[in-house]
Specification:
homodimer, alpha/beta, Isopropylmalate Dehydrogenase, 10-stranded mixed β-sheet, two-stranded antiparallel ribbon, 13 helices, 12 strands, binds 3-isopropylmalic acid, Isopropylmalate_DH (chains A, B), amino-acid biosynthesis (chains A, B)
Amino acid sequence: MDFKIGVLAGDGIGPEIVEQAIKVMDAVASKYGHTFNYTEALVGAIAIDKTGNPYPDETHQVCLDSDAVLFGAIGDPKYDNNPAAKVRPEQGLLGMRKKLGLYANIRPVATFPSLIDKSPLRKDIVQDVDLVVIRELTGGIYFGARGRSEDQTEAFDTCYYTTEEVERILELAYVYAGKRNKKVTVVDKANVLASSRLWREVAQRIEKTHTDIETDYMLVDNAAMQLIQWPKKFDVMVTENMFGDILSDEASVITGSMGLLPSASIGRETSVFEPIHGSYPQAAGKDIANPLATVLSAAMLLESLDLLEEAQAVKDVVNKSIEEGYVTVDIAGEATSYKTSEVGDWLAKNI
Amino acid sequence: MDFKIGVLAGDGIGPEIVEQAIKVMDAVASKYGHTFNYTEALVGAIAIDKTGNPYPDETHQVCLDSDAVLFGAIGDPKYDNNPAAKVRPEQGLLGMRKKLGLYANIRPVATFPSLIDKSPLRKDIVQDVDLVVIRELTGGIYFGARGRSEDQTEAFDTCYYTTEEVERILELAYVYAGKRNKKVTVVDKANVLASSRLWREVAQRIEKTHTDIETDYMLVDNAAMQLIQWPKKFDVMVTENMFGDILSDEASVITGSMGLLPSASIGRETSVFEPIHGSYPQAAGKDIANPLATVLSAAMLLESLDLLEEAQAVKDVVNKSIEEGYVTVDIAGEATSYKTSEVGDWLAKNI
Ligand SMILES: CC(C)[C@H](C(=O)O)[C@@H](O)C(=O)O
Ligand SMILES: CC(C)[C@H](C(=O)O)[C@@H](O)C(=O)O
């Protein structure tokens, strides 16, 4: 089959890790008889530098025209710690989410047995962790009205949700739970927030239509604790945008395999697949960055195209590279390590 | 000296743990020649049951008339998971914070060497952790305008901050850092929120007036990760109300000594001291609850009255009880354990 893939490599290590994922996808294509037609487009700091816009219209068009989008990473130190800067790479990201309607961010977090010693948590706690955080991505306080008083001494942001937004993401959570361990944990702050009470009411209604799935409710402060104390007890955690930003990042460090975690942002027309780590500017161009999270994001991309066997082949080869120690220095530690490009070549060859 | 102490024991294990703290304070009083005049008042579910109001006016008056307030815990299962209930214990808590102007919640988190194995984190990560989370407590999304559309399908909450609110809490953070390890980490989401940009601007200004203290800025999602990965690197973390709710709870589990953590909520006129754990209804009345967090909250209370030597004596006797294993079952594990009341008696005797 033929597929159109948008490629938004972005900043820092973005281009070099995306390059490896494409090698792997090409290997998949030739093995399984598909064609991936890639179209590159600008995003992030590099897009600001070249066009003045972190998410240019042409890039948006490329995404719309694609069956799926592979995304690297964005962010550049020159825009950091400068909240007052007029144009910032993050605005590109938020604009992309909104314009493409990427309403759900999916982050699977599972322990890699051979990397368990890298976890900051005790082995018995992190063993067999296998959860997914589903974060609402186009609503809440990220996109509500905000502003400053005229004299600049007051500021406000608005967290706003509609019933449909909540229904849509909860239904998605039940789809994932149905394919996994049949448990949904709805995280909110219903003892304080009106928007959370809306979430909870909608969830209590939708729960009744999914009697095969266990539904739990948890306050966000409690969830922040339980993720560390008993991460194993979660299957699918679903929550609103800001809580999801915090909890999905918290969840991402518990297994110690940050450099391995992929994500999918699901949209109505197309979806975007990207590693959860950042653009790691210090490592850019050095051929040392770990490409595995991007390669696993490509696996999620293949799943979204219903290429399930192909996706499994990619996951298998990544596992193999970890087991055989054919990995970059961040994972290898004192052992022999390989360059970003070498890992990509190895994966492609072993597909 | 004579002091007036408000005593709000609350629900669940509240009364029995507060009783032990009072034994210890009485021992301090007789040893150091002070008088503590206690006035009890209702709060929480028990206050709803008896008066229909979780924070009755008489209770507020008791607090206003006190030099400091000792607080137990609130919450009752019959009000849980019922976001629609008209009156809830939490409203009492939020009302108290607002009416007493308790603008800062202070939560020290330090590792107890002998309890390090209880931490969910690896020993090398949690060893020597010593940090304080300072949470703004009377502003932000907790107290901004909120509501529902007439047809109930939309809901919103408002996060609102003024320059003065931000200044006040940041100045307090620098006071704490000055007495500690001279480092303040300001946590916000300045890459998205207008209120966070106000926080950051104010902080960047105030930072310049405290050149003896190192100031760091961290986005909340990053802070949620770093707390687990490198908790040692924090000294004083300061943040707005909602982020503080999440991060202070997250911080509270990293040392594995949840049952030992005290807190102070600082007000203009009086301050409130309470354990960070909940009302633990399953244990109520069984004389098994761990009173140490409440006793350590009493130590913070003594500090607020400038009884520094007395406060240190309380902290010392708590450490002694832990080292000698004179503790409740949650800490003792398989070893011999003692009843709540026995621990209180022992502490009072050994002051
Ligand atoms: C860069 C920032 C705006 C973004 C967010 O907060 O959503 C990032 O933290 C993320 O999680 O993708
Ligand atoms: C009970 C609830 C309203 C409260 C809060 O969110 O502030 C609690 O979680 C706390 O941290 O004291």
